[in-house]
Amino acid sequence: MPAPVNTLLIEGSFEELTEELATYLDSINNAQGHQETTVHDDVSTLLQKEGDQKDEVLKKLVTASSILNSAPEREFIAAYNLLIHLVRQSENSSNFLPVICRNVSKPVTSSPNNGTGLALNILSTVFNTLPPDQDTRYHVLLAILRIIRTNATFDSLKPQLKHIDTWLEQWDMDKEEQRRLFLAIQDVAMEAGEDDAAYQYLVKALRTIQSGEEVSSTEAHDLSLRALRSALLNPSHFDFQDLIALDSIQALRTSEPVWFQLLEVFSADLLDDYNDFKDEHDGWVDEQGLDGTLLTRKMRLLSLASIAASSQNRTLAYNQIAKALLIPTDDVEMWVIDVIRAGLVEGKLSQQGQTFLIHRSTYRVFGQNQWREVGSRLDMWRTSLVEVLRVIRQEKEQFVREKEQELRDAEQRSGGMGYRPRQQQRQMVDSGFD
What we know:
22 helices; mainly alpha; 4% strand; 3-stranded antiparallel β-sheet
């Protein structure tokens, strides 16, 4: 995969190296029993002509370079590195690099076991020897993604994902090109079973669809349904606000009203609303290939998160939870544990009190109602703080009064002790002890 390498040093003049590579290409063809080729002769003829024939020479070499995929494994990387070195000496290298990438992306017949690693090595070399802001890197990266997808090596891509947005900015890619890259990454993640990453990049692709015509296009429609289905069927995905905010998803309100209605249910409604949806559209969930059991479970967890977030005293009774989730009271603790594991709520169960004490809860939708609730809670906290401050002030004043009284008492006691010794002294004189 791409790494911080920016140079490729090979000794020799352009003429010497091109003839060397041309001879090597002819030798591979001959060794494979293919029709005799004349790459070396063609290159030599071009080099002898007057004027700059560099691009014509490179065209001959690049066109014939597909045979390198059958080169011995120990010579594969060196041969391709030489070709890349020669191509980079042309001002029109971007015309040749896509062909090299296509050739490398084909099976390496000389090394079926290590072919993927060899191909990625060459493509990484191409990627890293290009200037960071050169948009040719974009096409090289697409070739890398094709190889990774074919061979399910997603782990080799993960470290590079953090650079994607920066690269796209450097290359000044338009929205359509960005979408193409995001979808390529999504395909790779799906192939590798990385559902969360796949969904993340599918949503990124949808965010590139913004204009009116694009939002209503077939592509936008299909991608939106794919994202919605993926969000619904992912057992660990509970936040649907990222979809609701997308223009292309909003377009489903007209083109796919039932799908959009289901999205609204999962975005903000409760289990009763989902059951009403199923009654209204009897059999629709199964017809669409959705997992009804999974959807019901998610709605129970989301419903529990909602009632926890709306609880004013931060406490839910077991029977209240059972009623909202349509479950026996004996199953409440199991569902509370599941919602905590899902990261939607934090709290503590009390078997003795048959209550769930809520420490933290997640709002599924944050709109005007939620702002009013936050305002109400802030008012409650402010009132509580005012009362606390009043009590503290009273205690402080009482403390000051007590200290002042202690000082007065101490002064009085000190005055009394000063009088007695003098009285005792007079008594002693009168008694004749002097």
